[in-house]
Specification:
Blueprint (H helix, E strand, L loop, with lengths): L1 E4 L3 H12 L4 E4 L3 H8 L10 H8 L3 E4 L10 E4 L14 H10 L8 E4 L7 H9 L7 E5 L8 H6 L4 E5 L8 H10 L3 E5 H32 L3 H9 L20 H16 L4 H14 L1 H11 L6 E5 L14 H8 L4 E5 L13 E3 L3 H5 L4 E4 L11 H7 L4 E3 L7 H6 L3 E3 L11
Parallel strand pairs: 1-2, 1-4, 2-3, 4-5, 5-6, 7-8, 9-10, 9-12, 10-11, 12-13, 13-14
Antiparallel strand pairs: 6-7
Helix pairs in contact: 1-3, 8-10, 10-11
């Protein structure tokens, strides 16, 4: 038996989709009036296919206003939509009240899955501060990706499931696994905070797509272009969609992307279009580029007066000698007052332009006597170097590897203080 608590858009869609997969379902909401309507097939939402879904599966679903009916459920989904206030802030008060209602009726050792969208940190706090430890409830957070107007389709045919767990390395409970398997889509298990942020990340990427399309389509109106002619070309670009860039980096570099941004910015100014998003992206790129500089200030300069810094990579990306807008050059400029040793398999610099920079003939030669190593370009050859050799060559042990070019586990085992983009170091404070 599978339970659903909270019958708003999310709960109605998911509970009926679950019944459609052959499971017996208990669907709870505290409003007796709503429950009565749902039992008659009268819905407070309009969704294509919803009435047909109910008619075909109503024998397998019990709509109830009694939370006690959830006590028969081994797996319970909390599926109340989280509304926002006038300032677009989430109001989790009704969600917390729902949790208080159902907690006394959860069977010991059951699986509780939070479908409601919450901010990062909520699920872990729920486990630590809300649910009685004596219940031994196994708690998970699952990202919902329903779309108004396509809720039934999305509930029945999900692209993938993203599940947050206290320990992502442990197998999911058996009934939860069977429920996933019935939908036949990939299941990605991660820590609570990653799953909670994944939902936000999806929406932010969607926002960026919408903003870009709106910016360029308005520009099309001004310069005589046709966005409908451009869109098919974008859909055929493998870097967009399934092959989108999802790896953290040090902003945009190389010149081509920046050029196009500046072109759009210029054209927008000439034709009176709003293109503030372009400046925002440029600002974000500059901020991202300086991630390494901030790390060096915090980890090295704050602890040593005149350190020697080692840079692996000068090119703006692997497999090129170009240093156009390279983050490495920006870093060298920012650290002009300090001694730097650098190595790049293809790119080179004029020593006269950078008086406190010396170029080495190999990666390990550059490391000799260094207080900190920064991997600015993820050349494949760097991954072949043993971290123990790096540690032996260096005087210090700080390793800043933004792109994850080296094996983190091996580096830590070798005694290096390893830092990579997108990965928190040390205990997470909520």
């Amino acid at each position: 038996m599978i339970g659903f608590a909270g019958l708003s858009h999310l709960g109605i869609s998911y509970s009926l989709a679950t019944a459609a997969k052959g499971f017996e379902v208990v669907a709870f909401h505290s409003s007796a009036g709503l429950v009565a309507d749902l039992g008659r097939g009268k819905f407070p939402i309009e969704e294509p296919g919803l009435a047909e879904l109910f008619t075909a599966n109503q024998k397998r679903i019990l709509f109830t206003a009694s939370a006690a009916d959830l006590s028969a459920c081994e797996l319970v989904f909390v599926s109340l939509d989280v509304k926002t206030d006038d300032a677009n802030r989430s109001d989790t008060t009704p969600l917390c009240e729902l949790l208080r209602q159902i907690t006394p009726h959860l069977p010991k050792g059951c699986t509780l899955v939070l479908l409601s969208q919450v901010n990062p940190g909520f699920t872990r706090k729920l486990c630590e501060n809300f649910l009685p430890q004596s219940l031994a409830v196994k708690v998970f957070y699952q990202v919902e990706t329903l779309i108004f107007g396509r809720a039934v389709e999305r509930a029945l045919h999900p692209e993938r499931y993203m599940v947050g767990a206290a320990d992502p390395d442990q197998p999911l409970p058996e009934l939860f696994r069977r429920w996933h398997a019935s939908f036949g889509c990939p299941v990605l298990v991660m820590r609570y905070e990653s799953a909670e942020l994944a939902k936000i990340a999806i929406n932010l990427f969607l926002v960026s797509t919408v903003s870009t399309t709106n910016t360029l389509s308005e520009l099309c109106e001004k310069i005589g272009a046709d966005w409908s002619e451009i869109a098919p070309a974008l859909r055929l670009d493998k870097r967009i969609g399934p092959h989108a860039y999802l790896s953290p980096g040090l902003g945009i570099a190389g010149g081509n992307l920046e050029r196009d941004l500046m072109t759009v910015k210029q054209l927008a100014g000439e034709h009176g279009c709003e293109a503030g998003v372009i400046e925002a992206w440029l600002l974000n790129s500059r901020y991202s580029r300086d991630w390494v500089l901030r790390k060096i200030h915090a980890l090295v300069l704050a602890n040593k007066e005149d350190p020697t810094l080692v840079l692996w990579g000068l090119a703006y990306k692997p497999n090129t000698h170009s240093t156009k807008n390279s983050p490495a050059l920006a870093l060298i400029d920012a650290l002009a007052a300090f001694t730097k040793m650098a190595y790049d398999p293809q790119a080179t610099l004029d020593a006269k332009t950078y008086p406190r920079l010396r170029l080495a003939s190999s990666p390990l030669e550059a490391c000799r006597g260094g207080d900190a190593l920064v991997v600015m370009t993820p050349w494949p050859e760097f991954a072949k170097i043993e971290p123990a050799e790096i540690q032996e060559s260096m005087k210090g042990n700080v390793l800043i590897d933004p792109f994850g070019a080296l094996n983190e586990t091996a580096c830590v085992e070798a005694g290096l203080a390893y830092h990579r983009l997108g990965v928190s170091i040390g205990e997470c404070v909520l």
